[in-house]
Amino acid sequence: MANKAIYPGTFDPLTNGHINIIQRAAELFDTVVVAVARSAGKSPLFDSQERLDMTKNAFATQATIEVVFFDGLLVDLAKKQGAKIIVRGIRSIADFEYESQMAGMNRQMMPGLETVFLKTDAEWGDVSSTLVRDIARYGGSIGQFVPAEIEKIILNKLS
Ligand code: COA
User: Fold this and answer.
1) ∠ at Cα 51 (39, 127), nearest 5°?
2) 13 three-class SS
3) Does residue 128's CB lie within 6 angstroms of at least one atom of ligand 1?
4) Per-residue confidence (pLDDT) for residue 1, from 0 to 100
5) Which domains does the chain carry?
6) What is the mean pLDDT of residues 131-145?
7) H or E stretch including 19?
8) Among 39, 90, 93, 115, which is best to mutate for testing ligand 1, by the most ligand atoms less than 8 A from CB?
9) I need a labelling partner for 123 at 20 to 30 A (CA). Which of 18, 20, 24, 38 fits?
């Protein structure tokens, strides 16, 4: 059975930190499904379609990376996709506490589902989508945190 892993997130916007995790996951698994969550509770700057489009474009040339939208439980997406692996990036102990709780709850809802944690490379260890949005909003440079295409999209949105 081919190994399929899901990497879920809000991606508001997709950052180099996320891309780092996705590319590393693509080395480990046959297929990586990047799952863009609605995350209505977070009131994202970019709507679902915009986040889906920017994420799809970032991986358009990589056949083993698929990008999908989901609205609902992650375990339901995993069942629909026939995937038993969730990938999450860990930047810090604080991430681990939250992630370990989610991994545990997901496994209670779907026994057999494994969450694999990849340590975020130090270069991206402090990056978050919120901080990138904030820096851009106040005129700071975000070019080192997101791909050039996404930088343009963010600057357009905020102009
Ligand atoms: N590099 C850079 N930033 C990273 C990162 C990395 N490697 N890993 C995480 N982040 C940042 C994100 O940018 C995000 O920043 P923000 O809060 O400023 O937006 C933050 O860390 C956490 O975001 P993310 O990893 O994308 O998770 P999330 O909280 O947006 O998404 C879901 C969480 C969507 C996976 C989770 O809510 C979910 O599964 N929802 C579906 C409903 C469900 O099943 N709920 C029950 C779960 S038990």
Assistant:
1) 80
2) coil
3) yes
4) 55
5) 4-125 (3.40.50.620)
6) 97
7) helix 16-28
8) 39
9) 38
Atom 20, ligand 1: which residue's CA is nearest?
Answer: 128
Query: Residue 10 is which amino acid?
Result: T
Ligand 1 contacts CB of residue 46 (under 6 A):
no
pLDDT tens, position by position, 38-95: 988 989 999 999 999 999 999 999 999 999 999 999 999 999 999 999 999 999 999 9
Q: Which residues does 130 contact at the CB level (< 8 Å), separation at least 6?
A: none
DSSP, residue by residue, 101-158:
HHHHHHHHHSTT-EEEEEEPPGGGTT--HHHHHHHHHTT---TTTS-HHHHHHHHHHH
